[in-house]
Protein backbone atom coordinates (compact mmCIF):
# COMPACT_ATOMS: atom_id res chain seq x y z
CA UNK A 1 0.00 0.00 0.00
CA UNK A 2 1.42 3.37 -0.93
CA UNK A 3 1.35 6.58 0.97
CA UNK A 4 0.98 9.89 -0.76
CA UNK A 5 1.43 13.56 -0.05
CA UNK A 6 -1.41 16.01 -0.28
CA UNK A 7 0.11 18.75 -2.42
CA UNK A 8 -2.06 21.56 -1.06
CA UNK A 9 -1.37 21.16 2.62
CA UNK A 10 1.86 19.17 2.55
CA UNK A 11 0.42 16.52 4.84
CA UNK A 12 1.16 12.86 4.49
CA UNK A 13 -1.81 10.67 3.70
CA UNK A 14 -0.87 7.90 6.05
CA UNK A 15 -0.66 4.30 4.84
CA UNK A 16 -2.91 1.91 6.71
CA UNK A 17 -2.51 -1.68 7.76
CA UNK A 18 -5.16 -4.35 7.07
CA UNK A 19 -7.20 -3.17 10.04
CA UNK A 20 -7.18 0.45 8.88
CA UNK A 21 -4.71 1.63 11.50
CA UNK A 22 -2.10 4.24 10.64
CA UNK A 23 1.41 2.95 10.12
CA UNK A 24 3.71 5.98 10.16
CA UNK A 25 3.74 6.15 13.95
CA UNK A 26 4.34 2.42 14.23
CA UNK A 27 7.26 2.71 11.81
CA UNK A 28 8.74 5.70 13.63
CA UNK A 29 8.53 3.82 16.92
CA UNK A 30 10.15 0.76 15.32
CA UNK A 31 13.14 2.68 13.94
CA UNK A 32 13.48 4.84 17.07
CA UNK A 33 13.66 1.84 19.38
CA UNK A 34 15.97 0.01 16.96
CA UNK A 35 18.29 3.04 17.08
CA UNK A 36 18.17 3.19 20.87
CA UNK A 37 16.94 6.79 20.79
CA UNK A 38 14.48 7.94 23.45
CA UNK A 39 11.25 9.70 22.56
CA UNK A 40 12.57 12.89 24.20
CA UNK A 41 15.84 12.76 22.28
CA UNK A 42 14.16 12.20 18.92
CA UNK A 43 11.70 15.03 19.57
CA UNK A 44 14.49 17.41 20.56
CA UNK A 45 16.74 16.51 17.62
CA UNK A 46 13.83 16.75 15.14
CA UNK A 47 12.70 20.08 16.59
CA UNK A 48 9.20 18.98 17.55
CA UNK A 49 7.48 18.63 20.91
CA UNK A 50 7.67 15.35 22.78
CA UNK A 51 3.87 15.22 23.12
CA UNK A 52 3.42 15.74 19.36
CA UNK A 53 5.91 12.96 18.57
CA UNK A 54 4.22 10.70 21.10
CA UNK A 55 0.84 11.28 19.47
CA UNK A 56 2.35 10.47 16.05
CA UNK A 57 3.93 7.25 17.36
CA UNK A 58 0.65 6.16 18.93
CA UNK A 59 -1.10 6.89 15.62
CA UNK A 60 -3.29 9.52 17.27
CA UNK A 61 -1.97 12.22 14.94
CA UNK A 62 -3.17 10.75 11.66
CA UNK A 63 -1.63 13.05 9.05
CA UNK A 64 1.58 14.76 10.17
CA UNK A 65 3.20 17.14 7.69
CA UNK A 66 5.78 15.82 5.27
CA UNK A 67 8.27 18.31 6.74
CA UNK A 68 7.89 16.74 10.20
CA UNK A 69 8.24 13.22 8.79
CA UNK A 70 11.36 14.31 6.85
CA UNK A 71 12.92 15.74 10.05
CA UNK A 72 12.21 12.51 11.92
CA UNK A 73 13.60 10.39 9.05
CA UNK A 74 16.77 12.51 9.01
CA UNK A 75 17.36 12.06 12.75
CA UNK A 76 16.68 8.32 12.52
CA UNK A 77 18.96 8.09 9.47
CA UNK A 78 16.16 6.34 7.57
CA UNK A 79 15.05 6.97 4.00
CA UNK A 80 11.66 8.72 3.86
CA UNK A 81 10.24 5.93 1.67
CA UNK A 82 11.31 3.34 4.22
CA UNK A 83 9.67 5.29 7.03
CA UNK A 84 6.42 5.49 5.05
CA UNK A 85 6.30 1.83 4.03
CA UNK A 86 3.58 -0.41 5.40
CA UNK A 87 5.29 -3.79 5.70
CA UNK A 88 7.94 -3.59 8.39
CA UNK A 89 9.20 -6.84 9.82
CA UNK A 90 7.24 -7.93 12.87
CA UNK A 91 9.77 -8.27 15.72
CA UNK A 92 7.55 -10.92 17.31
CA UNK A 93 7.27 -13.00 14.15
CA UNK A 94 9.09 -16.29 14.59
CA UNK A 95 9.83 -17.13 11.00
CA UNK A 96 8.73 -16.09 7.55
CA UNK A 97 6.70 -18.85 5.92
CA UNK A 98 8.20 -20.19 2.73
CA UNK A 99 6.53 -20.38 -0.66
CA UNK A 100 5.13 -23.86 0.03
CA UNK A 101 3.11 -22.53 2.96
CA UNK A 102 1.77 -19.65 0.90
CA UNK A 103 0.80 -22.11 -1.84
CA UNK A 104 -0.89 -24.33 0.76
CA UNK A 105 -2.91 -21.42 2.15
CA UNK A 106 -3.90 -20.40 -1.37
CA UNK A 107 -5.00 -23.97 -2.12
CA UNK A 108 -7.15 -23.90 1.04
CA UNK A 109 -8.77 -20.67 -0.08
CA UNK A 110 -9.43 -22.04 -3.55
CA UNK A 111 -10.99 -25.13 -1.98
CA UNK A 112 -13.46 -22.84 -0.24
CA UNK A 113 -12.14 -23.36 3.27
CA UNK A 114 -13.10 -20.39 5.41
CA UNK A 115 -10.88 -18.98 8.13
CA UNK A 116 -13.68 -19.70 10.63
CA UNK A 117 -13.36 -23.44 9.89
CA UNK A 118 -9.60 -23.69 10.43
CA UNK A 119 -10.02 -25.13 13.95
CA UNK A 120 -12.11 -27.99 12.54
CA UNK A 121 -9.38 -28.78 10.03
CA UNK A 122 -6.73 -28.68 12.76
CA UNK A 123 -8.68 -31.37 14.62
CA UNK A 124 -8.93 -33.41 11.44
CA UNK A 125 -5.18 -33.11 10.84
CA UNK A 126 -4.47 -34.21 14.43
CA UNK A 127 -6.70 -37.24 13.89
CA UNK A 128 -4.87 -38.13 10.65
CA UNK A 129 -1.50 -37.83 12.42
CA UNK A 130 -2.76 -40.04 15.26
CA UNK A 131 -4.12 -42.60 12.76
CA UNK A 132 -0.81 -42.70 10.84
CA UNK A 133 1.14 -43.21 14.07
CA UNK A 134 -1.12 -46.12 15.06
CA UNK A 135 -0.75 -47.64 11.61
CA UNK A 136 3.03 -47.35 11.86
CA UNK A 137 3.00 -48.94 15.34
CA UNK A 138 1.00 -51.92 14.03
CA UNK A 139 3.51 -52.44 11.21
CA UNK A 140 6.40 -52.44 13.67
CA UNK A 141 4.64 -54.50 16.35
Give a quick precis of the structure.
With 141 residues, the chain is mainly alpha-helical.
Run of helices and strands: EEHHHHHHH
How many β-strand stretches? 2
Largest sheet: number of strands, sense, barrel closure? 2 strands, antiparallel
> By helix and strand content, what is the structural category?
mainly alpha
CATH class bucket of the largest domain: Mainly Alpha
Known CATH architecture of the largest domain: Orthogonal Bundle
- What is the total number of structural domains? 2
- Helix percent reads 55-70%
Beta-strand level of the residues, as a percent range?
A: under 5%
- Rg estimate, integer Å: 23 Å
Characteristic key phrases:
DNA binding; mainly alpha; DNA-binding transcription factor activity; single chain; 141 residues; 7 helices; disordered N terminus; 434 Repressor (Amino-terminal Domain); elongated
Amino acid sequence: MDSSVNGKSGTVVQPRDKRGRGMIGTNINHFRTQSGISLSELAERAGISKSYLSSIERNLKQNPSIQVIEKIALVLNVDLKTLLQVNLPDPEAKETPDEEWYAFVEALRQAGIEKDNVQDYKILIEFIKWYQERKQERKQG
